[in-house]
Amino acid sequence: GKEYESIHATIVGDGTVGLVTLDRPKALNALSHALMVEVVDALQAFDASPKIGAIVITGKGKAFAAGADIKEMKDKTFVDAYASRFVHHWNAVTAIRKPIIAAVNGYALGGGCELAMMCDIIIAGERAQFGQPELNLGTIPGIGGTQRLIREVGKSRAMEMVLTGKHFMGAQEAAQRGLACRVVPGEDEALVAEAISLAKEISKQSKPVVALAKESVNTAYEIGLTEGVRREQVLFYATFGLQDQKEGMSAFVEKRSPEFKDK
Ligand code: HXC
């Protein structure tokens, strides 16, 4: 893969999984502008790479990411922040069509928690700590924290976390509430291995069907039920235009494993 300053981007899982590792351990992987430019670049490259079916993102050291880089943003004026929209480019993460699994190994705070929530699946390591401490800094979450957290953990718990800036959420609670799909005990290597194995499993599915399914599930975040179900049906009908749908259904009837080939 390409060389970056603050992250590593490697291809794993027999060539079918892209792995992004945040690697600024001295700053607990604080998400500087440069680091997020690299993350978006790596995700877009994996998204465009035909053999890759899913992506894993994790952090090196004791943090997944301790938030946006406080040292970098502290002196910004309102006009600087508003005119340059300095975190707007993070939204590119949500435009990636392949599934992204966040393997949250430690602190996921502020922008780190928000980055994890922009991913499609969170798997928590046993030391994962989710939090939105922005109010301690005299600011508020800025890239979805006030919007996505409430959908995951409910209003009271989201309000408690956001309004106090404390009361972080550990791995077990995150899994109980559905913020994470499960907790992987043990070392970070085990967590990343589990995330890669899940990504590999997804990579075996039809790539266009996975993209359609991700788009359809994410629609639930954006709009109401009636409109969501209507859009789901359009995407469902669209799968009947794919060779992979013919292959998948024929394989079932013929009692064999499907071999998906559509790009
Ligand atoms: C810049 C950071 C940082 C951050 C940690 N560091 N978090 N630098 N931005 N977000 C740096 C510290 O300054 C320190 O550098 C080094 O990393 C190690 O951190 P310590 O605080 O010494 O570690 P520890 O005592 O273990 O405490 C861990 C911690 C604490 C609880 C995670 O670092 C912390 O509270 N960090 C800030 C968390 C936060 O408020 N995040 C939200 C940011 S605002 P030196 O040079 O001293 O060794 C945000 C807004 C998002 O994310 C909005 C849009 C994206």
UniProtKB/TrEMBL annotation:
Residues of the whole record sequence present: 118 to 380 of 380
Gene Ontology CC: mitochondrion
EC class (word): lyase
Molecular function per GO: enoyl-CoA hydratase activity
KW Lyase (keyword) present: yes
Keywords from the named record: Fatty acid metabolism, Lipid metabolism, Lyase
GO biological process, one term: fatty acid beta-oxidation
Protein name (database record): Probable enoyl-CoA hydratase, mitochondrial
EC number, UniProt record: 4.2.1.17
Source organism of the structure: Ceratodon purpureus
Family to which this protein belongs: Belongs to the enoyl-CoA hydratase/isomerase family.
